[in-house]
């Protein structure tokens, strides 16, 4: 070992090795057994190394048959020489432990646990973590994740919280943290100043509402503060909402000078700190101001959730970025004091809005220490420990004094102070409760269900959310895991707020509570990273997997898979001769592309809101020679222009008939009377009526017949304006009814049915019971049959006319 080694001892000397071996060889059977155990551990990859004092991890691994490879600085006989062991049994156990470590001296550990971010000893040399990361086929399990401290440092956590909205997942990932700013970023300092000023405005409004609701005299004749100060705060809150709602784009907002802000802050300090009051409201506008203030605060709370627990004193907490255990933390409520601290500081600070109205237990502040474990970074896997503990302050909570003994609940701080006089008897003397004690307290005050419904799920969502926001800064490291300890504060609604996250949390047995929880946490870590990793059915103790990121496996394609394969088109696909103009229905429809072209022409003559093209399956079915004709096609349709394909006529009739179906559906009223056909058709029902049975079923109101005719007769080549039915048609020479050209006598049965039904039945006012009674009447059955026959004739007439007029214009 070179002179730069931080360790004084580098292992056993030759004499010490000889002494250890001789001591064990004197019991030849035990020496052989130890050698066999060492060889078995090497074959099963059960060699571990611990840098630091962590007896819980050592005990858990030894129980599983692992062998410890001791670091060089601990590989000596100092404990035996110093008389640490009291009897020969303990001395022999220490000698055997050293001998086993000597047997595996040249083997790389399969599990490494260490506490500090520094190189650790392996064998006779020092190996850094980077060496293990770059090593090929490294299967060593290490309790440290490579990261840039994006969430375990104060400034890193600040940045992660500020950008967490990109990683929000409802009911899964949602971070609730106080508003925080980094002092080393000039832009964030400017943002903090703006935040401080708006917070002063909202604090003043909250104070006024609170005092008025408690009937405190704050608007009196002897008041020294003008009510215009309250109006100033209202206007600034209104402008804040305009900016958040992006209404400042259309409304020019007035700019407030620094002089006005300074004057306002001075009056605000006098009201909050010196308890000054406002002047009397001479114009009697106070009720209006207070109502407006309540409305503004309710809207601002949507953008500033911390408004519900940040109080009225505008207190901020200033934390050194690189200190721990509560060292260097200060609190201040005046903007000038905070800026002076930041300007005079030589190091980086984090400014965080203080939660002035936390949840208290017997007038005492507390926070919750929650442990969680990350066993994979890509995909992200997070385990949360079900047990946690509470850390109490030693003094009663008060905002009149900013002493650390009142506001900082760190055990490293509170152990320096005695508990205050008059402290509630139920509070612990060592200032700690485990989660079971707190659940018992919640049950006592009637809030037992809040732990499972609000507190624990809230902490879980914050942990998942903060890890997702920092996942991009992590590297994909194999066999890495790490334990973290985070602190939460509850507000009056029992909602947890994330305050801090610590890597390498202190797991020492400082109190009876930590002496019970910390060893259990460490033992359960081995269950997760060792037992569960080898057997998915193994127990994980009290660790619960709260998030397991799903991974999409993208298949990898080779170069051969990137070729494009195709087939050449037949020569008859390309037409090179002269195009002969024919009527649309003279073409023989045999191929799919011909049908598609014809439908494209049909669509040009119909209203696009009415025309609905057929699906590909329907087109192919209609063009297939083996397909059956649609039942809606009238076989008796007469036409003087005979075409070469009956499929073409069937297709056109199908298109028109389907559009009639759609028109009837769209024109049907919700309150119309529904006609239901009998299951068996009357013997005198015509063949045409049977063909169009499904059309009559879909007609839900006789009163829609006139609308049906007007909608169906509309064509693109007629006037776009609404005209009568006769104006819509330009009748051809073929139209020659009993009353002359353009006769509508074929519709007389429908007109008669319409008049008969409308005089006997009030469709809009008839109730369901009346409709049912009428449906069973024989007269109504006869009427339905007549209506069905007349409707079939009408549809046949429309089909015939549509075909004829299409021929004239195509």
Which spans of ≥5 residues are poorly predicted at pLDDT below 50?
Answer: 1-9, 117-127, 581-592, 605-646, 666-747, 761-772
Calculate the terminal CA-CA distance, rounded to whole Å.
100 Å
Percentage of residues in DSSP E strands = 5-15%
Largest sheet: 7 strands, antiparallel
Mean pLDDT: 74
* E-strand count: 19
How many domains make up the coordinates?
4
| Portion of residues within helices | 40-55%
Contiguous helical run count = 27
The computed structural class is alpha+beta
- Can you tell me the overall shape? flat
Q: What is the rounded Rg?
A: 43 Å
Describe the structure.
By secondary structure, this protein is an alpha+beta fold. It has 4 domains: 14-142, no CATH class; 179-354, no CATH class; 358-548, ATP-grasp fold, B domain (D-amino Acid Aminotransferase, Chain A, domain 1); 584-809, no CATH class. It contains 27 helices and 19 strands. The strands form 5 sheets. Strands 13, 14, 15, 16, 17, 18 and 19 form a 7-stranded antiparallel sheet that branches. The protein has a 4-stranded parallel sheet with strand order 2-1-3-6. A hairpin with a 2-residue loop joins strand 4 (120-122) and strand 5 (125-127). The relative contact order is 0.07. It comes from Loxostege sticticalis. It is found in: Cytoplasm. It holds the Pfam family TTL. Keywords: ATP-binding, Cytoplasm, Ligase, Nucleotide-binding.
